[in-house]
Amino acid sequence: MADSTRDLIQKLNAAAAIKFGDDDATRLEMAMAARKLYHKLETNAEKVLRFINEEPVVGGGEKNIDELRAIAKKDIDPELLQHLLQLLASSNIIKETGEDLFQPTNFSLSLGDKRTLLAPALRVRTDHVMRPSIHFPAFLGSLVLQDLPKVIAMAKFTTDKIRAIGHNFFEPQPVKDTGSRVYFFHAVLHDWPDSTVVNILKQVAAAMKPGYSKLLVNDIVLPPVGASIYQAGLDCFMLQISGKERTEAVWNKVISEAGMKIVNIWPDGRGYESLVEAELL
Ligand SMILES: C[S@@+](CC[C@H](N)C(=O)[O-])C[C@H]1O[C@@H](n2cnc3c(N)ncnc32)[C@H](O)[C@@H]1O
Questions:
Q1: Is the pLDDT of residue 203 over 90?
Q2: Which of 100, 123, 146 is the last residue of a domain?
Q3: What residues does the O-methyltransferase C-terminal domain cover (predicted)?
Q4: Phi, then psi, of 260 in degrees rounded to 5
């Protein structure tokens, strides 16, 4: 990281300690400047996650209030619509170009663009969007994608390097002749409580080849203190479905109860997820 960037980060962090006294206008001005900077730095994927965890979402279009009202499926009170559009503009989801006049942003347009996958990601309330052509280079050998049969039935591939197999992970692993090199789970185990994760991993352990196979869990590893907003937000979201995000200590516990041991944890360096690497005991 460049020294100037590091300096700026330090200055911004120090700014939290500023006392504004009665000067509320300056405090607000600084808050707005910080907010603008945040929106500039935030990626579309991060924005999706923030909406999921923190804010309500409505898509946008380039219209004035009357035009937007006319294309809405339900009769909307224009005053209410104006309030909502103002809220969306204040969050930089759409842009306010004049009084009661709004235009889309790159992000709101992306929501309507099927190729971006942002809208479905929002709809399923998660960012579990995978594009095999990007994530799996052509040189990779044999890859097996497993999910429940009804999910596999919907899968479409842009490569013949991936074999899709319908499989319930509470049952014995069907690919087990020689033991695979890697068993990879992304954003799967955090959906489940500890005892269930142990059961899922026991099925994996039974198929693994000692000294060769690895378990790679790509999930959040919560720090003991100072979880990021992304980590803490997703943790609360997972709690709603009986899952949770886990600290290293808890990952250690569930993985060892399944007959494996953690050999390394690779953080992504962004305060998001980590790759937990484990082997048979
Ligand atoms: C949160 S999604 C993660 C999907 C994918 N790994 C990703 O990161 O985009 C969890 C996945 O677990 C699958 N799943 C749920 N129960 C399952 C089961 N019993 N056996 C196999 N897969 C299951 C779901 O169908 C879903 O695709």
A1: yes
A2: 123
A3: 142-260
A4: -130, 170
Higher-confidence residue of 148 and 36: namely 148
CA 59 to CA 201: how far, in whole Å?
40
Question: Angle at the Cα of 126 (from 214 to 37), degrees rounded to 5?
Answer: 105
Q: Looking at the 3D structure of the chain, how many domains does it have?
A: 2
CA of 168, closest atom in ligand 1: 20
> How far apart, in Å, are the Cα atoms of 189 and each of 128, 158, 197, 244?
13, 26, 6, 9
More confident residue, 8 or 138: 8
Catalytic residue among 83, 135, 186, 190: 190
Residue 133 lies in a domain: no
Q: 254: pLDDT confidence band, cut at 50, 70 and 90?
A: very high
Structural tokens at position 199: 């059961």
Whole-prediction pTM: 0.64
CATH of the domain at 8: 1.10.10
Residue 187 is encoded by which pair of tokens? 């954003």
Q: Is 190 among the catalytic positions?
A: yes
Query: Which pLDDT does position 158 carry in this prediction?
Result: 75
Tell which of 123, 156, 188 closes a domain: 123
CA of 238 from ligand 1 middle (Å) equals 14
